[in-house]
């Protein structure tokens, strides 16, 4: 694993962005970060049951993809889906309430952390079964091509999903049928707790794109504007030529695989090195050094975001439990034949 250079210059895609858009992206990344930290506290207090997979460290990807999207584009995600939802515009109160299993949650409290769904905001599900959503994304893209709705489907997956059977099946169909879909592998260096070099025979995941007949791109994450630029090129290809793309974004998660993972498998100094290139902190530096914002101004924004997430916690905690009948709401139940 290549450790980032703490003294590397600020990325050009970040320094060339305007103050307003940098500030907006900074706030959106910060909202995801503080939401996840609030969720982690709720989990330790017993407010959240089941699994909880945090997006801390990867926020720039979700925000950058959103910057590149058009209104009717779709996102199909993994179980690490809180960041996508917030970036897409999902309500923080509803997102937190879903984690708490409450009736006011994004899907009424029956989906939990791994199954967010917000169709009005373009989020077509978080999927807990690894790799099984890849063919689902191909299906969305097939519908777009068939209907001519000019939409592009973004499918997120982790590096641990690229060896799963349905991933191969979905990408094969995408290449075979020339579908407007972008498969975005968020390579955070670990498949749960196993380093990449022990799970994949080749380091470059996009090397397999040729076998699927699709374009490829691979880059180390720096900031949301870099993501917007690289994803934007793939979107243009998908929208204008109906061609799929496999993209690998090298990123890093600052927490364990889930809340039950203490992440003791990291090398000494590894986490600190990656934190030094955190997109949120780099954006904060640019806002101060290049755009003249003070530390107090940025701290005030952070305080506003923390207040928003504290309010989401209170909203979720005080919300009612769903009615028992709600668990049947989105299930197709056969109508019994009349006697």
Automatic annotation (TrEMBL):
<keyword id="KW-0670">Pyruvate</keyword>
<dbReference type="InterPro" id="IPR029061">
    <property type="entry name" value="THDP-binding"/>
</dbReference>
<dbReference type="InterPro" id="IPR001017">
    <property type="entry name" value="DH_E1"/>
</dbReference>
<keyword id="KW-0560">Oxidoreductase</keyword>
<dbReference type="Pfam" id="PF00676">
    <property type="entry name" value="E1_dh"/>
</dbReference>
<protein>
    <submittedName>
        <fullName>Pyruvate dehydrogenase (Lipoamide), alpha subunit</fullName>
    </submittedName>
</protein>
<dbReference type="InterPro" id="IPR050642">
    <property type="entry name" value="PDH_E1_Alpha_Subunit"/>
</dbReference>
<keyword id="KW-0786">Thiamine pyrophosphate</keyword>
<dbReference type="GO" id="GO:0006086">
    <property type="term" value="P:pyruvate decarboxylation to acetyl-CoA"/>
</dbReference>
<feature type="domain" description="Dehydrogenase E1 component">
    <location>
        <begin position="28"/>
        <end position="325"/>
    </location>
</feature>
<dbReference type="GO" id="GO:0004739">
    <property type="term" value="F:pyruvate dehydrogenase (acetyl-transferring) activity"/>
</dbReference>
């Amino acid at each position: 694993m290549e450790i980032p250079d703490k003294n590397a210059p600020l990325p050009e895609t970040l320094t060339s962005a305007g103050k307003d858009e940098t500030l907006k992206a900074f706030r959106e990344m910060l909202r995801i970060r503080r939401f996840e930290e609030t969720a982690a506290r709720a989990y330790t207090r017993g407010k959240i049951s089941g699994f909880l997979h945090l997006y801390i460290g990867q926020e720039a990807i979700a925000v950058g993809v959103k910057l590149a999207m058009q209104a009717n584009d779709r996102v199909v995600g993994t179980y690490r889906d809180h960041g996508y939802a917030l970036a897409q515009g999902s309500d923080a109160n509803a997102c937190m309430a879903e984690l708490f299993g409450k009736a006011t949650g994004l899907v009424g409290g029956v989906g939990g952390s791994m199954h967010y769904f917000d169709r009005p905001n373009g989020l077509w599900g978080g999927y807990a079964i690894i790799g099984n959503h890849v063919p689902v994304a191909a299906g969305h893209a097939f519908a777009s091509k068939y209907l001519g709705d000019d939409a592009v489907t973004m499918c997120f997956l982790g590096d641990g999903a690229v060896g799963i059977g349905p991933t191969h099946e979905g990408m094969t169909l995408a290449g075979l049928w020339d579908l407007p879909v972008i498969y975005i592998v968020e390579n955070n260096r670990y498949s749960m707790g196993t380093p990449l070099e022990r799970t994949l025979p080749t380091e470059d995941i996009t090397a397999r794109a040729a076998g699927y007949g699709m374009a490829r791109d691979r880059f180390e994450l720096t900031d949301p504007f870099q993501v917007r630029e690289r994803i934007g090129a793939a979107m243009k290809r998908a929208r204008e030529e109906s061609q799929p793309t496999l993209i690998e974004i090298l990123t890093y998660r600052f927490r364990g695989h889930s809340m039950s993972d203490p992440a003791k498998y990291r090398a000494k100094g590894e986490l600190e090195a990656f934190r030094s290139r955190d997109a949120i902190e780099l954006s904060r530096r640019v806002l101060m050094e290049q755009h003249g914002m003070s530390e107090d101004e940025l701290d005030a924004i952070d305080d506003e975001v923390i207040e928003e997430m504290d309010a989401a916690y209170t909203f979720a905690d005080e919300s009612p439990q769903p009615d028992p009948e709600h668990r049947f709401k989105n299930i197709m139940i056969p109508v019994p034949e009349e006697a």
